[in-house]
Amino acid sequence: MARVVYPKVVTANHLLEGDVIYMTASGEWSRKHEDAQLYEDKNEAEAALKIAKGQAHMLAGPYLADAQIGENGKPEPVHFREAFRTRGPSNYPNHGKQAEV
Amino acid sequence: MYNYNQFDHDFVRNRVKEFRGQVERRLDGSLTEDEFKPLRLMNGLYLQLHAYMLRVAIPYGTLNSRQMNQLAMISEKWDKGYGHFTTRQNIQYNWPKLKDTPDILDALADVEMHAIQTSGNCVRNVTADHFAGAAADEIEDPRPTAELLRQWSMDHPEFQFLPRKFKIAMTGSPNDRAVTKAHDIGIRMVRNDKNEPGYEILIGGGLGRTPMIGKVVREFLPKENLLPYVEAILQVYNLNGRRDNKYKARIKILVHETGIDTLRGWIEEVFKTQKAHHQAPPAEMIEAIEAQFQPPEFDTAKVDEDKLSKIISADPLLRSFVETNVSEHFDSNHSIVTISLKPIGGTPGDATAEQMRIMAGLAEAYGYDELRVSHEQNIILPHVRRDDLPEIYKVLKEAGLATANVGLLSDMIACPGMDYCALATARSIPVAQELLNAFEDLKVQQDIGPLKIKISGCINACGHHHVGHIGILGLDKAGVESYQITLGGDGTETATIGERAGPGFSYEEIVPAVSRIIDRYMDIRESGDDTFLDVYRRVGADVFKDALYPEEAASA
Ligand code: HEM
Ligand code: SF4
Q1: B367 pLDDT band (50/70/90 cuts)?
Q2: Do A16 and B99 touch (CB under 8 A)?
Q3: Is the same domain home to B332 and B434?
Q4: Which of B139, B358, B417, B424 falls between 20 and 30 A from B283, CA-CA?
């Protein structure tokens, strides 16, 4: 079975809070996955990751994560690990991003 | 307990100052994450999935009330009002902000604590029995020896670049509560034919990717020979341990590939020369260490046991608490109380700031100011007068801390897993919670009897799943959480690595699967005293596998 190749988002942890962040189309950072810019093109994704790697003063550990367009037309994670990162710990519904929605 | 001397004070304060400078340089961008990461790890600061995490060392799991109160204060001031006690006998804060961590470290130093993770491939923090210095079955308190080893290994120039990290665990009792057989070196206090105390030495235990039970390398080592002997083990390991492959670098692989008998010969050879050249630590040093771990001056007034037993039998909840959470102390007027951090629906090992203060208050009022953290993620009051048990129970109950489940099914170990840990391949805490909910009724648990369930969220095995009677390992199977069950593991003096039961279960299937194992056990045991482990050892794995995989059993 050939592995499906998914589009990518650039994600990292915010330097001060350690919170999960995503790179948007304008190159800003958002705490919401749905604001992320989705890269279909591998080279574009790599180029965006390189920019993120140059922003060490505000983030840590940037990488490319699989994502896809969800039902609401906005990017959503593919893997469960990335889905957990959009929410927070499942044992404390009032901690992490899930607390804000 | 161990009090800092001037050297320790200066060392810790200087480290905080140094780290403050490093954080400032990271924040202004002059240090990259690659440069900063090893520096923060040396100070116990990890970056996890959703936030930073600070791991605070609690040597030998020993704390006083002032320290516990400070841990509570830190959790309120800089975190979310709780802390997580772990299997490495330490506490972790899950939500500190980077800029606050130097202040947290200063607040820890105020009460003689730190987060210095003796990181790297050196001898790590020595762990010890959480009942040390109190247990009725103890030959001697292992902590002075553990502290001697710590002082000897810290900054030992020869052993800073071992093939891999090196963990030592110690127990002073024949009943092994420190999992000594799953450490690089396990030290167990024993007596020889002449009734002299000494050590049995095991090497090559470990969990993780390649789980192994430690093997006895020396049946009896006189106390005064400990340092030259441990030095001999480390020299042999340093020279012969594999450096070509990180996964084969622990001493367990050397033991496995070379054989314990050959290795014993090498170690004894080196030990002979070591012993001849070794300068014993000065007697004053040993005495000074021993003085730090002296038992408190016990109140010797005789406990009125008749009166006490009347009070206890009048209250069924108190009675069940005393039966499960209270252990025998070497002094007959005293007992050891284990405070369970596994309430139904809670997260194993978590305590709120308020609960920490209540436990600190109990230690101060009734416990000679001593508390312990156990590797099973509970808190211990090691010395309490037996006639204070009813009052202690009352206070604990009001604080939601009186769950009478120590040693029972719901007294589980679970690692942080994918709710926090960046290395995780699956979640572990919610599996523990769902199991807790499924077996909510304490009466049912008491009927099931002693049972240890241990859960890890990846192969690193921080949750000790290999030595759980029922072990659960969370994996990522093609993008879906999958849980593998091991059966028959044991972390005590009869240590065994559990056997893999077969294909994994999905998140939805794992709790019913565990229930099927327990149902089968309940069906086939001969009496209430016939424990799960006894039955498993008697009937073997197949009976349980049939229960786990009924379809295969039916078609076979
Ligand atoms: C959350 C961040 C954590 C990380 C990144 C982490 C990482 C690791 C790694 C990589 C190993 C394997 C070492 C080896 O086999 O050479 C390990 C082992 C271990 N960890 Fe953790 N761990 C974490 C949390 C914990 C926690 C919370 C506990 C206690 C509950 C813990 C207890 C242990 C123990 C007891 C082992 C030893 C298993 C052995 O004998 O090899 N760890 N950890
Ligand atoms: S076992 Fe794995 S998931 Fe659990 S804490 Fe250790 S490294 Fe993280």
Answers
A1: very high
A2: yes
A3: no
A4: B139
